[in-house]
DUF4142 domain-containing protein (Streptomyces lavendulocolor), 234 residues
Amino acid sequence: MTRTHRWAATAFTCLALTGIAAGPALASAPADGSAPATDAAFLRASHQGNLTEIAAGKDAQKNATTDCVKHVGKVLVRDHTKLDAATRALADKQGVDLPVAPSKEQQETLADIMSKAGTKAYDAAWLTAQAAAHEKTLARIDHQVAHGKNAEVTAAAKAARPVVAMHLDMVRGGKCHAAAAPRAIHAGNGGQVATSLAADVPVALAVPAVALGGVLVAGGAFWAASRMRRHDNR
């Protein structure tokens, strides 16, 4: 295992131990058919994406060199924390087990960006990665809207779309456009999930205390991993 992978593994082990996610990484759809494969896959991928954006946003607030990127990072943490609260609640209702951490590719991308902490290269790499990630997320949302079988999951996808689209506008083309961020999330028409996302309430009211603690500790783990890297390179 390379040093980069060891740092990523350390950080994401912390994610699992603090209860930021629930269930095994590879879980099958429930036997009762309440969440078809397409819908279950969407919920799992959404959860992994939210974990990644929360971690990336927290890291940007610490290690970005420009106020614009720091601000965008703060917005990502705010919005994806709320999105993930809705995703977790819906997954629990549908009986879908969620992964304990982002995908291997997402972990490696985060580790690569953190290796540039405190430099201008960090901001450029962070913005480029966020643009690519949010483009993929929009494509996944559109696929769910077009092909999803579960009405509630599809409604959640519709509710999340304007939020993700706004994020993409902030980082489109690998450039920072902080002015694209409104002060509150404006979600689409997605039923109860949309109502939850649209409400601009404190994170502490939207996310269970354990999950919020996991997010905070995970952010510290990524910071520590970055410090380990810089120490090893001396």
